[in-house]
Every structure is written in C-alpha cells, then in structure tokens.
Amino acid sequence: MNRIKLLFFATIRDRAGVKTLDLDIPMDLTIQGLKDKLAADYPNLKESMKSVLITINREYAFDEAVVPQNAEIGMFPPVSGG
After folding, report:
1. Cβ atoms 77, 51 nearer than 8 A
2. Of the N and C termini of the chain, which has fewer Cβ atoms inside 10 Å?
3. What is the C-alpha radius of gyration for the chain, rounded to an integer number of angstroms?
4. Dihedral, CA atoms, 56, 57, 58, 64, nearest 10 degrees?
C-alpha cells in the first residue's frame, strides 16, 4: 500500500470537513482512480471530484498520472476570475 497525504482547499475543504487526510491507496493508483475512490468513499466530495484541480507534490497533475509513494496531493476547486 501507498500512504499519501491529501490537502483540501476552499470549498472542497468545506465539503470534506477536514484540512488534511492520510490515506492508504494501492501502489499503481492513478489520479482518476483516486478521484473515483474519494467520490465513492466520501459522498460529500462526489460532485467536487468532477472538476477538481489536483497537484502531486505541488505540481499540477493529470488524471492518468500514477500517484507516487508518500505523495502530498492537493485538491483545489476550479479557479475563476475576471
């Protein structure tokens, strides 16, 4: 198993109810797999996982990226501005 640390920001933090979460995941899990797991295990986060922005160790990551060991995963809501 791979132990990661999730960091939640803004509205995703509100929905999660916590700032951080330590989680054990399979070694070959992708970002999409992680989003699917969170949506299934934490129903309050399901809607957020459709449009969440993800970082792995402070660098933006795409859905097909494999989560490295002991990673720090940041989860941000979509950013808008004008």
Report:
1. yes
2. C
3. 12
4. -20
Compute how many other C-beta atoms are within 10 angstroms of the C-beta atom of residue 6. 21
What's the pLDDT score for residue 81? Answer: 67
Q: Give tens-digit pLDDT for 40-51.
A: 999 999 999 999
Strand partners, 36: none
Q: How far is CA 24 from CA 29, 33, 80, in A?
A: 11, 13, 32
Q: How far is CA 76 from CA 1, 10, 28, in A?
A: 25, 7, 23
* Segment holding 22, helix H or strand E: strand 20-25
| pTM confidence score | 0.93
